[in-house]
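FYI - complex with pyridoxal-5'-phosphate, inputs then prediction.
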Amino acid sequence: MTEPSRLTRALHTGFHVDPVHGAVAPPLYLTSTFTFESLGEPREHDYTRSSNPTRDLFGEAVSELEGGAGGTVVASGMAASSLVVLSLVGPDDLVLVPQEAYGGTWRLFDTLAREGRLRVEFVDATDTERLTARIAAAKPRLVWVETPSNPLLRLTDIAAVSTAAHEAGALVVADNTFLTPLGQRPLELGADIVVHSATKFLNGHSDLVSGVVVAGTPELHARFRHWGNVLGVTGSPFDAYQALRGLRTLDVRWRRHLENTAAVVAAIADHPAVSAIHYPGLPDHPEHDLAGRQQDGYGALVSFELAGGRDAVARFLDGLQLFGLAVSLGGVESLVAHPETMTHASMSAEARERAGIGSGLVRLSIGIDTAEDLVADLLAGLDRAR
Ligand SMILES: *Cc1c(COP(=O)(O)O)cnc(C)c1O
């Protein structure tokens, strides 16, 4: 038989690893500590903060999908970003961060910079020419990339940014939460490190919070494992067990997410209550061509603006049956969020304005429900919002 695909290998991670009972699914090792064989003879694992067999399997599977050298599983997506920053950046180092980064990421860098622990510059990561020129001039330590962005789904050219960053001696970190490794593989495009909020599509069931750092080289992976233990940010084995279980269906979920989102976008784009729609799959999206080059598909997030502002948003939301009003995304269920007051409330008002997040903006995370039902629910809401 030929070598199985990366997807097959990843989704088989941990099957048939139980030598005692031959369990098909991997055992869940709920233990804080492991005995030594004898004095001076530790086993493979000695303490769960540093490593745990169940948690390591989830890291391996995500790394396999990303084409990485290893995955460190941590307590949340923000723990993943914190681990990268705390293990690589010093007080004199500059980090370039997209101005419309995930709200928590924006707050992490803003807070660390205010306390003098690093230097940060928030940049327009969609303007490739200006960004690459800034990288060459400023010589940052890290260039942070989050593409598609949240909530406007603008794209950053990962290959172009990576080339410029490497010429300037910088490392590129890509937050790949929105597309999963099935939709985009930043390491193949030149990035050095990938971070995930596994809370979202990787686990896919909205029942835990988790994060993964995937390193492009064994040296970086060793560094993240070391610092994960030093800082104590590693994730719980139970959550990793659940997340690996969720990951096994990622491919089938992802296909349905994409199919449903395309159906929703086609149905709502021309509704009179909608003054703008943001989705990389639309031909008039500013980075539509780039999406075709660097992504497989267009993702399961879509945002749009209601011409009637915040009042229209309230009317739209009041009566939706199938969309929960909640932050987060990437679960089997569909969610709706109002970025100004929810996901991006931790940003300053000026930063929000610069990022283009206004009162009428709504973000949808499209689940794996039946597309016709989602469309009917949304169209009824848009009629109320007129
Ligand atoms: C949710 C999210 C994070 C943070 O992850 P948590 O698991 O909530 O800590 C980071 N980046 C993106 C793009 C996210 O959507």
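The CA atoms of residues 103 and 344 lie 5 Å apart. The chain has 14 helices and twelve strands.
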